[in-house]
């Protein structure tokens, strides 16, 4: 198949080319994101390969269908950037990578927790400047602390097991609980308000849906422990960033670790070091010492990139051969359940 691959960097091309060696699709790489302004680049392609910040709304999907696109191959597990109803109505198949390396994101979650708790980011800067004072760098033992996880898919459960290894008590909220995880002692399911009230650390591991949009907003923060640590390695819009700033100012939020951001599409994956960031909320977050932000790099390991590329290319090959893929989204079911 002819495939237009959007939002690509050299590392994407390296892993996709390697995965494609035994499939021989025609992969054409574009660095820009797919938006209404770049649709023309996709003209004549059977398949569009998209990433997390590519726009696949009704306008874009209609234009793609008119240009002959039959398949959207997502290089990600999430699909919140796709207008599912429009894709179904147009007869466009959407495939994804449901699991690539849940360890990558779970381990990055712990990296953020440890960095914030032990003030590694601040200590690193001090020592480089010859300042070896420990004032203001005191952390706390993770052992014995209560961690609340919202979402218990593959990433959430692996995060829970890592936290258990640190001696943490792990609470979890999920509208579809898995009794096996309680039975083996990995975690304890509770209601969301109880998780807010009891957790020293709250970490988000759920998809972005209408029900989870701004699941951590001002109202939710009022229910948390004062000084709570908040971690988000899932999707930016799970958090109301303005509410987080207010929480940080009041001390209700003691630490904030983000690998994703609601308006990240115009920021992440690009070198913006020579220009002024125009997003005032994001710029404000960068000035707060008990905030650590990474640029959507939780997935960024050799294993994850290899798995993403291999699954993506296989999805395309399966569709080209049979017109179907085991990783295709069931659009009717998803739309009905939304």
Brief overview:
With 338 residues, the protein is an alpha/beta fold. The protein has 13 helices and 12 strands.
SSE arrangement:
Layout (H helix, E strand, L loop, with lengths): L1 E4 L4 H11 L5 E4 L17 E4 L7 H9 L4 E4 L9 H7 L2 E3 L6 H16 L2 H9 L17 E5 L3 H12 L3 E5 L5 H5 L4 E2 L2 H7 L2 E4 L13 H4 L6 E5 L8 H10 L2 E6 L21 H7 L4 E3 L8 H21 L8 H7 L1
Parallel strand pairs: 1-2, 1-3, 3-4, 4-5, 6-7, 6-9, 7-8, 9-10, 10-11, 11-12
Keywords:
single chain, alpha/beta, Rossmann fold, seven-stranded parallel β-sheet, five-stranded parallel β-sheet, about 15% strand, globular
Task: Give a verbal description of the structure.
The chain has 338 residues and is an alpha/beta fold. It folds into two domains: 135 residues, Rossmann fold (3-Layer(aba) Sandwich), CATH 3.40.50.720; 192 residues, NAD(P)-binding Rossmann-like Domain (Rossmann fold), CATH 3.40.50.720. Helices cover 37% and strands 14% of the residues. It contains 13 helices and twelve strands. It has a seven-stranded parallel sheet, with helices on both faces. The chain has a five-stranded parallel sheet with strand order 2-1-3-4-5, covered by helices on one side. Helix 3 packs antiparallel against helix 13. The longest helix is centred in the last third of the chain and has 21 residues. The two termini are 32 Å apart.
């Amino acid at each position: 198949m002819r495939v237009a691959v959007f939002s690509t960097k050299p590392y994407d091309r390296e892993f996709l080319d390697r995965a494609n060696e035994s499939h021989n699709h025609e992969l054409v790489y574009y660095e820009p994101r797919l938006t209404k302004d770049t649709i023309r680049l996709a003209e004549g392609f059977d398949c569009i390969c998209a990433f997390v910040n590519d726009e696949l709304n009704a306008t874009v999907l209609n234009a793609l269908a008119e240009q002959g696109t039959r398949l959207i191959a997502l290089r990600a597990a999430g699909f919140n950037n796709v207008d599912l109803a429009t894709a179904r109505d147009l007869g466009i198949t959407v495939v994804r990578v449901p699991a690539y390396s849940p360890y990558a994101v779970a381990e990055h979650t712990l990296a953020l927790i440890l960095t914030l708790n032990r003030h590694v980011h601040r200590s690193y800067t001090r020592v480089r400047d010859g300042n070896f004072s420990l004032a203001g760098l005191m952390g706390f033992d993770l052992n014995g602390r209560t961690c609340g996880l919202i979402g218990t898919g593959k990433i959430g459960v692996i995060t829970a097991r890592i936290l258990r290894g640190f001696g943490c008590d792990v609470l979890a909220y999920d509208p579809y609980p898995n009794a096996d995880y309680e039975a083996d002692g990995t975690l304890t399911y509770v209601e969301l308000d109880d998780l807010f009230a009891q957790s020293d650390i709250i970490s988000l591991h759920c998809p972005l849906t209408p029900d989870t949009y701004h699941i951590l907003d001002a109202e939710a923060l009022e229910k948390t422990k004062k000084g709570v640590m908040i971690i988000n390695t899932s999707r930016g819009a799970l958090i109301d960033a303005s509410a987080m700033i207010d929480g940080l100012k009041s001390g209700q939020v003691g630490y904030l670790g983000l690998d994703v951001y609601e308006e990240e599409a115009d920021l992440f994956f690009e070198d913006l070091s020579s220009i002024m960031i125009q997003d005032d909320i994001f710029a404000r977050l960068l000035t707060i010492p008990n905030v650590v932000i990474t640029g959507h790099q939780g997935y960024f390991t050799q294993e994850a990139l290899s798995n993403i590329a291999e699954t993506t290319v296989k999805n395309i090959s399966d569709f080209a051969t049979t017109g179907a893929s085991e990783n295709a989204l069931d659009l009717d079911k998803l739309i009905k359940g939304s």
